[in-house]
Design goal:
The complex is a heterodimer of chains A (201) and B (546). By secondary structure, chain A is mostly helical. Chain A is 75% helix and 0% strand. The longest helix of chain A has 30 residues. Chain B has one domain: Cytochrome C Oxidase, Chain A, CATH 1.20.210.10. Chain B is built from 16 helices and 2 strands. In chain B, helix 2 runs antiparallel to helix 7. The two termini of chain B are 23 Å apart. The chains are: A mainly alpha (201), B mainly alpha (546). Chains A and B meet through helix 1, helix 2 and helix 5 of A and helix 6, helix 7 and helix 8 of B. The structure holds protoporphyrin IX containing FE (HEM) and copper (II) ion. The site of copper (II) ion has 4 residues of chain B, from helix 8.
């Protein structure tokens, strides 16, 4: 019942219609997904901005945020975008040792971001249900943090899969690498928007 | 007309689970997945229909004597949610989209077959979950719109299950949308230009853009709502400083596009069916394409016409009234194109054609009440009355569901290799058409006279009209019988259909019925003029006259 198209054969039929006659459309599909994901954030941002505009949370509520930690977070993520890009350059040149090293750094930066975010959560003077601002703050940063968590896990998987000779990701099979890289840049971009809207505005 | 069938060098036929068992498997074949969507959707339609029956029985008398009010609310919520998220959206998009789009673009399958199968298999569990919530602790009671604070104050368990299930269905819809966009834009057979695609491809492209842009917003909103219910945050809870209007904006940012997600694919299907059964090219191909894209763009900026009574400021009312009025223009263009396609054609009044014509009539009526509703002074009076119920049933049932039946009559020979019985089909149409109009036309009157929607009890002065409406509903229920009988009978004993019983030109007919696993034995045909009917037919008649 579960025997579907056998694997070799289905990839053969792929060949006859996709690899030869069509450019690789997988990245295209990923971009469509990221647009959808971006719309989820857009909804959250819209909600946050409307709340802020029309729902005053009272004079005694605390909502001033400290800037140093989130600024550090921004730097961490921006640098990690750069290191991922570096790793990609080495993958192209088939220097897998270097590529793996930069990937590891990227993953470490992602984890560092998460730790620092956790630290911020514990030091903040408000909790999830304190007021509308607090709830929206946690929802937005939490949803973004979920993305960073998934991204870090995927980076580690890619790191594991780029090892020579057993890994399955290499210069010939680059798509998984490119996909995670694109996703990571996307998550970074979202953070920059979030940082501006939530902390600076 | 150009159809070039190049010599065959296709791969050998693939191993697949055979027989009906393959429809229960995690199949990657787009045709199997399409039929899985169709049958699964139809089963949910029967459930949703029974719930509608229960609603109409309750409304025979002014008191809530058939079921308690809480149960009425649950039935109402389940009915709406099932019909929208488990029947119309999966069938007009998932079923026909998966079956037809690869044919139309000349591909052997969808761009992401695995994602496709996942998208389908999300549906049965979420549907079952939704229905079982009724038996566990009571289903959600706040309608398909789940407006807070109602959705926060009614029993939490049912509402949470409702949210979870709609989230899964939304995910399924997004996966499907991504797949359609990639397939239509990236998997076209070489030599086939966008402007040569059958109209359903354009409709699905537009719909999928709406799905990808708007469904995630609903997902985010429902996640926030679930926080309000479970963690007692106050996003949408006024007593905790939250704002219910923000929920309404976010919800309708999805759900107005959602009404187009339900009806745009139906537009596309009708545009395929009319030319074939009237032997004429589709009128105004280019204007059709532009009006679809116009609807997509405008459809994203009219949502607040659902909120005219929610304290919307005047400038907002003005903007959304005007934008909504504009959206009637591309819709009107499409209507006139269909009429012009029929005009002077050699029309065969078979079941497919009848249901499509029924669609055109009902849709115009629903469109007119829609434009009326977009006028603030009028809407303020009839908002949340049965007038709105009548409006959207004219569009979702009179429009989309009529098109689904039309499409089943049209493509059944391709799906199964057998013909349906046309006379039973015509009978089905006549009962459905009468029943539908009898059920919903009187509701305009109810609404204009102030009967609110979503309430189990009503003022006794409305009783007679409600009873007429219930008789119509009974007819609609009965109309399912000839249909089901026809389907069962024809699957077993129907006449052989042959490859192309309608003499159609679109690529799904240029292969056997049912088609082989990779759609064509040989290379995919290159159909450059999917609607080139006029010339061919007039040639034929000329030959016949000689
Ligand atoms: C000609 C285009 C249309 C116009 C101008 C229009 C306008 C409107 C307006 C103004 C309302 C709000 C009424 C109120 O709640 O007071 C409404 C409700 C509704 N419309 Fe339409 N509409 C159009 C087409 C459609 C289509 C194509 C569909 C579905 C396929 C649809 C489905 C609905 C639904 C489901 C509701 C009720 C939602 C609810 O409150 O539960 N409409 N329409
Ligand atoms: Cu609307």
């Amino acid at each position: 019942m579960t025997s579907i198209v056998p694997k070799e054969q289905s990839s053969e039929s792929k060949k006859d219609f996709s690899t030869e006659e069509h450019e690789d459309f997988r990245l295209f599909g990923l971009i469509a997904f990221l647009i959808a994901d971006g719309m989820t954030f857009a909804g959250f941002f819209a909600a946050y901005l409307t709340f802020k505009a029309v729902n005053p949370i009272g004079p005694d509520a605390i909502y001033e945020l400290e800037l140093p930690l989130p600024t550090l977070n921004t730097v961490l993520l921006l640098v990690s975008s750069f290191t991922f890009h570096r790793a990609g350059k080495f993958l192209e040149k088939n220097e897998s040792k270097e590529c793996q090293r930069w990937l590891l750094i990227t993953g470490a930066l992602g984890v560092a971001f998460l730790i620092s975010q956790m630290f911020e959560y514990f030091t903040l003077p408000f909790g999830l249900t304190d007021n509308l601002f607090a709830s929206t703050f946690y929802a937005l940063t939490g949803f973004h943090g979920l993305h960073v968590t998934l991204g870090s896990i995927m980076i580690m998987i890619i790191w594991w899969q780029t090892r020579v000779p057993y890994g399955r990701v290499n210069n010939e099979n680059k798509f998984p690498f490119e996909a995670v890289e694109l996703y990571w840049h996307f998550v970074d971009g979202i953070w920059v928007v979030l940082f501006i809207i939530l902390y600076l505005l | 007309m150009t159809i070039s069938l190049k010599p065959s060098n296709s791969p050998p036929e693939k191993l697949q689970p055979t027989g009906w068992l393959k429809y229960l498997s995690f199949s990657l074949d787009h045709k199997v997945i399409g039929l899985q969507y169709l049958v699964c959707g139809f089963l949910f339609y029967l459930i949703g229909g029974s719930l509608a029956g229960a609603i109409r029985v309750e409304l025979i008398s002014p008191l809530s004597d058939f079921m308690p009010r809480e149960v009425y609310n649950q039935v109402l919520t389940l009915h709406g949610t099932i019909m929208i998220f488990l029947w119309i959206v999966p069938v007009v998009n998932g079923a026909f989209g998966n079956y037809l789009i690869p044919f139309y673009v000349g591909a052997r399958d969808m761009a992401f077959p695995r994602l496709n199968a996942v998208a389908f298999w999300l549906i049965p569990p979420s549907g079952l979950m939704l229905i079982t919530s009724y038996f566990i602790n009571g289903a959600a009671q706040s309608g398909w719109t789940a407006y807070p604070p109602l959705s926060i104050t009614t029993p939490a368990a049912g509402q949470i299950i409702w949210i979870l299930s709609v989230l899964l269905l939304g995910g399924s819809s997004i996966f499907g949308g991504i797949n359609f966009i990639a397939t239509i834009l990236k998997l076209r057979r070489p030599g086939l230009k966008l402007m040569q695609l059958p109209m359903y491809c354009w409709a699905m492209l537009g719909t999928s853009i709406l799905v990808v842009l708007s469904t995630p917003v609903l997902a985010g909103t429902l996640i926030l709502l679930s926080f309000d219910i479970v963690a007692h945050t106050g996003f949408f809870n006024p007593s905790l400083g939250g704002n219910v209007i923000v929920y309404q904006h976010l919800f309708w940012f999805y759900s107005h596009p959602a009404v187009y997600i339900m009806v745009l694919p139906a537009f596309g299907l009708v545009s395929e069916i009319l030319p074939i059964h009237s032997r004429k090219p589709l009128f105004g191909y280019i204007t059709m394409v532009f009006s679809i894209m116009g609807i997509v763009v405008l459809g994203l900026v009219v949502w607040a016409h659902h909120m005219f009574t929610s304290g919307t400021p005047p400038w907002m009312r003005l903007f959304f009234t005007i934008a909504t009025a504009f959206i009637a223009v591309p819709t009107g263009i499409k209507f006139f194109n269909w009429v012009a396609t029929l005009w002077g054609g050699k029309i065969s009044l078979n079941a497919a054609m009848l249901f499509s014509c029924g669609f055109i009539i009902n849709f115009v009526l629903g469109g007119i009440t829609g434009v009326a509703l977009a006028q603030v002074p009028f809407d303020v009076h009839v908002h949340d009355t049965y007038f709105v119920v009548a409006h959207f049933h004219y569009i979702v049932y009179g429009g989309s569901v009529f098109v689904i039946f039309s499409s089943i009559y049209h493509w059944f020979p391709k799906f199964t290799g057998r013909m349906l019985n046309e006379n039973l089909g015509r009978l089905h149409f006549v009962i459905t058409f009468i029943g539908f109009n009898l059920c919903f036309a009187p509701q305009h009157w109810l609404g204009l006279n102030g009967m609110p929607r979503r309430v189990a009890e009503y003022d006794p002065q409305f009783q007679l009209i409600n009873q007429i409406s219930s008789v119509g509903a009974l007819l609609m229920a009965l109309s399912t019988l000839p249909f089901l009988w026809n389907i069962l009978q024809s699957i077993l004993y129907g006449a052989e259909a042959g490859d192309n019983p309608w003499n159609a030109l679109t690529p799904e007919w240029l292969t056997s019925s049912p088609p082989p696993v990779e759609n064509w034995k040989g290379e995919a045909p290159l159909v450059l003029e999917p609607y080139g009917y006029g010339e061919k037919d007039s040639n034929k008649t000329q030959e016949g006259m000689k």
